[in-house]
Amino acid sequence: MHRKLFVFVGYLALLAAFAAPANAERIYVYRYGPPPTVIYEPAPAVVSYDPDDRYAGAYNLQGVVTGFVPYHMTIRIHDDFYPVALHDGTIIKPVGITLTPSMIVHVDGYWSGATFVANKIVVLR
After folding, report:
1. How does the average pLDDT of the chain come out, rounded?
2. What is the per-residue pLDDT for 65?
3. What is the per-residue pLDDT for 73?
4. Residue ranges making up the domain that contains 92
5. Domain assignment of residue 102, yes or no
């Protein structure tokens, strides 16, 4: 008799344990795809680099170049790295400059999946 009572209480405790997390709040964290953008007023004619301004607009990035090979670039914004793809119409200002690591750039373009496609790149420093 005691064994059946002990087993019954065990089953009740097990059911109570499974029922408790159903009421818990769930938090979903997505790390894939483009990060969220912050939109604000257009920058003045002279743009300076501020690491607290992660994005200059919905279709703009501003950060430090960490790597560059033809048609591919990596930008560091705070501690995150973002791939940037260049194409045969990408404008790089000042004209004739070669992008190198540690340059601070402002990139206009759009997101294509997890890659940012650059239409215009302006070297700030």
Report:
1. 75
2. 93
3. 93
4. 60-123
5. yes
- Find tokens 């790089």 and name the residue: 92
Dihedral sign computed on CA atoms, order 46, 49, 55, 61: positive
Specify the number of domains making up the chain: 1
List the structure tokens of 42. Answer: 């257009």
Q: Is residue 20 part of a domain?
A: no
Helix and strand numbers, DSSP H then E, in the chain: 1, 6
For 4-51, give the secondary structure using H, E and C. HHHHHHHHHHHHHHHHHHHHCCCCCCCCCCCCCCCCCCCCCCCCCCCC
pLDDT at 66: 93
Q: What is the pLDDT of residue 40?
A: 47
Q: Give buried/exposed letters for 23-48 (b at 16+ CB in 10 A, else e).
A: eeeeeeeeeeeeeeeeeeeeeeeebe
Residue range 50-79: average pLDDT?
Answer: 78
Q: Between the CA of residue 52 and those of 34, 62, 78, 121, what are the distances in Å?
A: 18, 10, 8, 20
Residue 102 has pLDDT above 80, yes or no: yes
